[in-house]
Specification:
203 residues, elongated, mainly alpha
Length: 203
């Protein structure tokens, strides 16, 4: 993979990680680099790198981009001829911390499931969290606690028309018991029964 392709994909991952739902533009990337690292780079220089006009980075630029994207500086080069690993695999292997590796893995998963918007949004939400590892460990604890996941789903994503704490009715083919009469209905039935008894007594 060429250096320009790697930078374009890193921009896409960074945009997803920041909740943009798209790749960061070159201008957004340069502004973020300036605000977060204090480094400077022109858009024309970045464009030339991504388009292959400049196949090599200066050492200063390589260190700046590696610092911003949290990848090893040695990653920001053209891959040797005939060497075509997936970018995500390289980025995970060269990321400096386990949290970075995990976040990149989550973002990669989100991109693979882009046709499932809810799942993609969930994976990106975990990746954006300050401690994505703890989020996954919490999910494990929830799933290991019998019935907890179902109860949480009832509260956080209730089924329309079903009160929290009650399961949605299932079709079983059995006849449901008659509804319990309301007080007003029971009173009306009692009065009718009393009138019927008086009529029988008068005969």
């Amino acid at each position: 993979m060429k250096l320009g392709e790697k930078l374009r994909y890193l921009r896409e991952m960074e945009g997803s990680l920041r909740g943009l739902g798209r790749a960061m533009t070159q201008q957004e990337l340069l502004r973020a680099i300036r605000e977060e690292t204090g480094g400077e780079m022109s858009q024309s220089y970045l464009s030339q790198i991504e388009n292959g006009g400049r196949p090599h980075l200066t050492n200063t630029t390589r260190l700046l981009l590696a610092k911003f994207f949290h990848v090893h500086p040695g990653y920001l080069v053209d891959d040797p001829e005939g060497y075509h690993p997936e970018l995500l695999s390289d980025a995970r292997a060269l990321a400096p911390t386990s949290d970075d590796k995990l976040d990149l893995w989550l973002i990669g998963g989100a991109e693979r499931f882009r046709r499932d918007p809810e799942l993609r949004r969930a994976l990106l939400a975990v990746a954006r969290h300050a401690d994505s590892r703890s989020c996954l460990l919490l999910l494990e604890a929830v799933l290991d606690t019998q019935g907890l996941a179902e109860r949480l789903l009832e509260v956080l994503r209730p089924t329309p028309g079903v009160e929290p704490g009650r399961s949605a009715p299932k079709a079983s083919g059995r006849t449901l018991p008659p509804a319990v009469p309301q007080p007003a209905q029971r009173a009306g039935r009692s009065q009718t029964a009393r009138r019927g008894k008086r009529k029988e007594a008068g005969k």
